[in-house]
Design goal:
- This is Phosphoenolpyruvate synthase.
- Belongs to the PEP-utilizing enzyme family.
- It is a single chain.
- This protein is an alpha+beta fold and about 1350 residues long.
- It has six domains: about 350 residues, no CATH class; about 160 residues, ATP-grasp fold, A domain (Dna Ligase, domain 1); about 120 residues, D-amino Acid Aminotransferase, Chain A, domain 1; about 130 residues; about 100 residues, no CATH class; about 120 residues, 3-Layer(bba) Sandwich (Glucose Oxidase, domain 1).
- Strand 8 and strand 9 form a beta hairpin.
- The longest helix is centred in the C-terminal third of the chain and has 48 residues.
- The chain is globular.
- About 50% of the residues are buried.
Length: about 1350
């Protein structure tokens, strides 16, 4: 029986268990905080602050979703989530907005702040603020007012500023072509007569990400959220609604690289490289609930970047919320979880923004102190909303972040209630195409006044534009559109459905085009198809509809009844594709049904003329497309011509260009005469004034014939020397252009006519040339981000793996795989949106040393780092300065860290066989049967799914390379016997040790070729073999010596996937094109016939003999340890080569798959030729399969056009900061190319001394100059050079280390070889006599080649 005291205790415990939650509930939710503790407008922590904060943190941790780990495949493939995240938001509710901001700075004083905010009712707010290092500030002329009107449904654009996504979450393009004001307009001063401050400016930037995404809701620190929420009075779950007030969106760090051109100042262009942030926000407009906000974005010299935002919302709401994150130069990011920013003490009003601010914040377990100093310039103020609801001050600041200098931009946002424009300025309507439901039956003929006629998919681009202008009220447009109707796309479809011959002709034409026939064959089929269309009568249904509309038109117009019949293909006259003049236009067609139907037949037929078909094929459009036809009353023009609302040559929006002649405009558009030229100038208010008029040598005019058609009429002398337009008429045409430009939202190319004083509009299309990609943009489009101006890059190793120029496809596939192979060795590194290890610069591959090789460093240069230098560069590179910079980025590794690294490498070394087995298993499992695919889209999906094999095998290769270098570090550590400094003898001894590595894949290739050559030499027709064309040599061997042909086939089966530039997907391998091999075989056989060729024999040396040859080893124990270690070094090198062979095998399978994909895309009419495939990225190919985007085709064509020029670019071995090309030309200075006795020092990798003829190969095109007995001097070699090694007496390379390809094969052949011999290809010339001393690592010119022709060609 329980004691009474125990019962009392149990009772009290139960009461406590019930009371405590009740008290907590009251404290948390029922406390009204009547005292309302505040500091001005801001709520400050109350007495129950910490309890509320704890409660919110606990709930948020339960609600916060777990971050999803990215797959390595994100390096190759854009996920659907990324696609969806980048899509434009559909604005449904009244106050919904969608904004994109890009901010960037450098340390010279250049800064940029760009923002486009999409709102409902065609309202766009644009911030454009640019500050240059000379202190000049540029803004839109409309600023401080940011409100613009225009169609914003499908693009980020406004005021001439455009944001264009190139690859989701990775690459964006930012362009501007228009007018900017130099200087800042005073607040609220809406008058600006200082036209001399208005300049024509063009800038183009490529924004490239350098970080993962920071999501506002997901990555907002729970500590800061709970702090903000716990300050406010709330009941029940109201705090959850407050949390959403920060909005939705994300941030991402990146770099801006581009050009700024001040066209008004003689086209002065400067290149800029900025670092900063891209910010996306969507949801409810800030002006609805926000009271004020502050945003700081800073960038420091060491590559760190920070963003701190603070917001105060209207009550009830969060009055003091802070959000922020920090980017570290090693790519890691962390959310700010503590910050001392106090909004009440930081610029509470717009006239009290402080000049100096000190911020302290914490992120990623690191404390930061930022000292911010505003630069001494006026803070420009921008206003938004209508009427104005906010003002925003933008300024540049200098900062110090933890002793690192930096710069950045700040934005102070305030609610505004002062004077402003009360309503939107009167504006013309925005012309938009209507959306037609596809389930409805489309009419065969529609009137220009019909709503359906405004749809380009139904009537084509030309008809749609005319219908949109026809829909305007008379008082909205100062011109008349001649009446007419459109024959729709559905009419052409019906015509073909009812005529099987037409279907057959078009199908035959499609087949000839997809089969890649010669132009003559395609032209013949085009001629047949055109003739068939012209001779096939219009079907009855279409004829009846045309007759009905024609009769209505005749009843409504006066004589003469002459009409213009114009082709209007789907896809033409758009911003991406003009198609001007590709299809037929017939003028002066008599208004009888028979004549009109014949004209319609002729227009349909022109769709399949050779020029029209080839134009579409050139831009990846299908052979068979829809076409509408516009039928309009002809205007008996007194004068006519073309108006460009922006100057077509300079793109200057202040100048309008008119070309015109008497009579019809046909003489102008077909360039029959030299027309009159009138240049108009306009200001921002829309006032147009004449600037220049030039009378052309017109000669004649074109007029309508009363019997139909057109005729040329000579102009009298006095009339020919007169302008065809009066000044007033020119001004009226100019004002009309301004109206259309505003309605369509961009510059226009307008055809017009004047008859009896009335202006008629005949056509209007966008000017497509202003958005074309510049050469600079195309060259740097895929450049990976350079985070600091002290970045340490190198072309060593990458110059061997990716020599010279990479195609876009290669850099998006195999180069990214190479980056992943390094990235996998550091599993704690962030995501896969960008490459940080093996990077691209101007289509050339480079290593970022700080992110890959110098990650785990100490305070002193160790022997291990010296050996890594030897293996990678072939000479010492690492210095104390580099170690210090690396330590600032990656931290200093302590003793335990070093021990962990060593133990991890020991583990990897012990399990190296499993790594090779994994690679071989992947190669065996990787079966890409590309020939079984008949649809390009299916094969593309298959290739995308196969990237997991490429990623895994690249990881195996990365591990094996790491193991190989580790064994070398151990071997050299023992070889030096405690000495820290490495000498040439150490290099020679290390090369001697590695020379015992045999049975390597790369070394086996020349041995097999020698065996083939010996087999041919043993026949009685060796001389005949040497005279056969290489392209016919295989067939010759099959007919004359089947056994040798079989041996050659076995060689190709084993090594046919190898070649020069084998990581380049565009390269043809030996198996695909054996001509290169056969040329080498013929040279070897020819030398044997003339007694110059001897089969290479290598003397087999025992390990004991090898160790006795080591010069630097003094101790017997050292030789014993090296004897034990030698098999390990051999095994590591051999397995590295074997892993690489598996790697190349998978790359070759992808190469074959892409080539088949190219054939399928040509067959489907998506690309004009198969070779163009390699000038797209993998992502672009996917877009092209979905959209047939002609802009992508144009970019690829331009990339291919510039390929030869970009091939000439060369980069030094060591690069600091932004990569800058160096000259490939031979050196002319003293001691340079012309000096006898000049000697260069390299790193010895194989001993021996030889004197002979130098063959300097600076590009692959010169490789045919190699002859037997040459000493090869080149930039670098790879496996593809192996067939030439039997011809050589020595090798000198500018790049390379102990285990580079040239070193490996040279040791196998016993060829004297030195690597890392900088500038050798620029100092020596082909034909020089040189002395190569392998043991000393020197090459010296003994005699200069005298043949001037050879020297010039070299």
């Amino acid at each position: 029986m329980e004691e009474p005291s125990q019962k009392i205790l149990d009772f009290l415990k139960n009461v406590a268990l019930f009371t405590c939650p009740l008290v907590a509930y009251v404290l948390l939710f029922k406390s009204t905080q009547r005292a309302g503790r505040q500091q001005g407008y801001y709520s400050i922590p109350g007495w129950n602050f910490f309890l509320k904060k704890w409660w919110v943190q606990w709930k948020l941790r339960q609600l916060q979703p777990q971050p999803q780990l990215q797959s390595p495949l994100a390096a190759f493939i854009v996920s659907q989530g990324d696609e969806d995240r980048e899509k434009l938001q559909t604005l449904v509710k009244e106050h919904e907005v969608d904004s994109l901001t890009i901010r960037g700075t450098d340390h010279k004083g250049n800064a940029i702040c760009l923002r486009v905010t999409r709102k409902r009712h065609n309202i766009t707010e644009v911030w454009l603020h640019v500050q240059l290092e000379d202190g000049s500030v540029y803004q839109l002329p409309e600023h401080p007012d940011t409100v613009l009107q225009g169609d914003n449904r499908t693009s980020w654009s406004g005021g001439g500023l455009k944001f264009k996504m190139c690859e989701p979450m990775r690459i964006w393009r930012i362009t501007f072509n228009g007018l900017l004001r130099r200087g800042v307009k005073e607040k609220r001063n809406m008058e600006d007569n200082e036209n001399d401050r208005i300049h024509h400016v063009q800038f183009r930037f490529i924004w490239t990400c350098c970080s993962d995404v920071i999501d506002i809701q997901r990555d907002w620190s729970t500590a800061l959220i709970s702090d903000a929420l716990a300050r406010e009075p709330w009941r029940n779950g109201n705090w959850m609604k407050m949390r959403k007030q920060l909005g939705e969106g994300y941030d991402q760090w990146g770099t801006l690289q581009g050009t700024w051109t001040l066209v008004s100042d003689g086209s002065t262009t400067r290149e800029l490289y900025l670092r900063g942030i891209r910010q996306r926000r969507y949801g409810t407009d800030d002006a609805v609930w926000q009271r004020r906000a502050v945003s700081y974005v800073g960038v420091t010299t060491d590559g760190s970047m920070f963003s701190i935002e603070a917001r105060c919302n209207n009550k009830p709401g969060i009055t003091h919320a802070i959000f922020g994150h920090v980017y570290q130069p090693n790519g890691c990011q962390a959310s700010v979880y503590s910050c001392d920013l106090s909004l009440p003490n930081l610029g509470e009003h717009s006239d009290s923004i402080p000049q100096h601010v000190m911020l302290r914040f914490s992120a990623g377990r690191k404390n930061y102190t930022a000292s911010l100093h505003t630069l001494p310039n006026n803070i420009p103020t921008l206003y938004g909303g209508r009427p104005w609801t906010y003002e925003a001050g933008i300024f540049l600041f200098r900062c110090t972040l933890n002793d690192k200098q930096g710069a950045g931009t700040a934005v102070f946002w305030y609610r505004y209630s002062g004077p402003s424009p009360a309503v939107m300025p009167l504006s013309l309507p925005i012309l938009k195409e209507p959306h037609l439901r596809t389930e409805n039956l489309f009419p065969l003929v529609v009137d220009l006044k019909d709503r359906e006629c405004s749809c380009s998919a139904l009537v084509g681009g030309k008809g749609s534009a005319l219908a949109l202008m026809t829909s305007l009220d008379k008082n909205q447009l100062s011109a008349v559109i001649p009446p007419g109707f459109c024959v729709t796309v559905a009419a052409l479809e019906m015509q073909m459905q009812q005529n099987s011959q037409l279907q057959g002709a078009v199908a035959a034409l499609q087949f000839e085009c997809s089969a890649g026939r010669e132009l003559g064959v395609i032209q013949e089929q085009c001629t047949k198809t055109v003739a068939l269309f012209e001779s096939t009568a219009v079907c009855e249904a279409v004829s009846c509809e045309v007759s009905s509309h024609l009769q209505n038109l005749l009843d409504s117009v006066c004589e003469p009844h002459l009409f213009a019949v114009r082709s209007s293909a789907v896809g033409e006259d758009t911003e991406d594709l003009s198609s001007a003049g590709q299809n037929k236009t017939l003028l002066g067609v008599c208004g009888e049904l028979t004549n009109l139907l014949e004209a319609i037949q002729s227009c349909w037929a022109s769709l399949y003329s050779l020029q029209s078909v080839q134009y579409r094929r050139q831009f990846g459009q299908p052979v068979q497309v829809g076409m509408g036809i516009v039928v309009q009353q002809m205007v008996p023009a007194d004068s006519a011509g073309v108006l460009f609302t922006w100057h077509p040559s300079t793109g200057d929006p202040r100048q309008m260009l008119i070309t015109a002649n008497f009579g019809l405009g046909e003489s102008v558009v077909s360039a029959q005469v030299e027309p009159d030229t009138v240049v108009l100038e306009r200001d921002r208010t829309g006032r147009v004034v004449p600037k220049e008029s030039i009378c052309g040598n017109k000669g004649h005019r074109v007029i309508m014939s009363a019997k139909g058609g057109l005729m040329a009429e000579p102009l009298q002398n006095e009339k020919g020397s007169q302008l065809c337009l009066t000044e007033e008429e020119a001004l009226r045409v100019g004002r009309l252009g301004l109206q259309l430009e505003q309605m369509f939202g961009g510059p226009r190319d307008i055809e017009w006519a004047i008859s009896n004083g009335q202006i008629y509009l005949l056509q209007s299309r966008p000017i497509t040339s202003f958005d074309s990609w510049s050469k600079f943009e195309l060259l740097h489009e895929f450049d990976d981000p350079i985070i600091t101006d002290t970045e340490f890059l190198t072309t060593a190793n990458t110059g061997e793996v990716f020599p010279g120029l990479m195609t876009p496809l290669t850099q998006s596939v195999t180069r990214r795989a190479a980056d992943l192979s390094v990235r996998h060795q550091f599993p704690d590194r962030p995501g896969y949106y960008y490459s940080a290890n093996v990077i691209t610069a101007s289509y050339h591959a480079m290593f970022n040393v700080f992110n890959s090789l110098l990650v785990s460093v100490g305070s002193e240069v160790t022997l291990g780092e010296k050996v890594v230098d030897l293996a990678l560069y072939g000479h010492p590179v690492t210095t104390l300065e580099l170690l210090q910079l690396s330590a600032e980025r990656n931290g200093v590794v302590g003793s335990l860290g070093k021990l962990y690294v060593v133990l991890d490498m020991v583990k990897n070394t012990l399990f190296r066989k499993q790594v090779l087995q994994q690679a071989e298993k992947l190669t065996h499992e990787f079966l890409l049967d590309c020939q079984s695919y008949n649809k390009a889209e299916d094969l593309y999906s298959c290739i995308s799914n196969s990237f997991k094999y490429l990623d895994e095998v690249s990881n195996c290769h990365g591990k094996s390379s790491k193991i190989s270098v580790f064994t070398q570090v151990i071997a050299v550590s023992i070889l030096t016997e405690g000495r820290e400094e490495l000498t040439a003898e150490h290099y020679s001894d290390m090369g001697l040790l590695l020379s015992s590595c045999s049975d390597l894949v790369s070394a086996g290739i020349p041995v097999a070729l020698e065996d083939l050559a010996s087999s041919i030499i043993a026949t009685d027709k060796a001389r005949d073999f040497c005279t056969v064309l290489p392209s016919e040599a295989v067939h010759w061997l099959e007919e004359n010596y089947p056994s040798v042909a079989t041996k050659l086939q076995r060689f190709l089966d084993k090594y046919g996937h190898r070649c020069i530039k084998e990581f380049e997907l565009m390269t043809e391998t030996w198996g695909m094109n054996p001509e290169i091999l056969l040329k080498t075989l013929q040279t070897m056989v020819q030398n044997a016939v003339t007694d110059k060729f001897q089969k290479t024999t290598t003397k087999q040396v025992t390990d004991k003999e090898l160790l006795l040859q080591l010069k630097t080893v003094k101790k017997h124990g050292t030789r014993v340890v090296l004897g034990w270690l030698l098999p390990l070094c051999r095994s590591a090198v051999w397995q590295r080569e074997a892993n690489k062979d598996c790697y190349i095998t998978i790359i070759h399978q992808l190469r074959l798959a892409y080539r088949h994909l190219a054939q399928l895309m040509v067959k489907e009419g998506r690309i004009p030729d198969a070779q163009l495939m390699f000038f797209f990225t993998h992502y672009e190919l996917g877009v092209l399969l979905q959209t047939r985007d002609p802009v992508l085709i144009t970019k690829a064509l331009h990339r291919r056009r510039y390929q030869h020029e970009w091939k000439q670019l060369a980069f030094p071995e060591i690069i600091r900061g932004l990569p800058v090309p160096v000259s490939k030309e031979p050196l002319k200075a003293s001691g340079g190319s012309g000096t006898v006795g000049v000697r260069l020092q390299g790193t010895p990798v194989c001993s021996g001394t030889v004197m002979g003829r130098a063959c300097v190969v600076r590009s692959l095109e010169q490789i045919g100059e190699l002859t037997h007995g040459d000493i090869l001097i080149t930039h670098s070699t790879d496996v593809g050079w192996s067939p030439y090694f039997p011809l050589l007496e020595g090798v000198v390379t500018e790049l390379g280390g102990l285990i580079s390809h040239g070193a490996v094969v040279a040791r196998e052949y016993g060829l004297p070889c030195i690597v890392g011999c900088q500038d050798a290809t620029r100092i020596f010339s082909t034909g020089d006599t040189v002395l190569l001393v392998g043991a000393m690592g020197t090459v010296e010119r003994i005699n200069k080649y005298k043949d001037q022709k050879a020297t010039a060609s070299d």
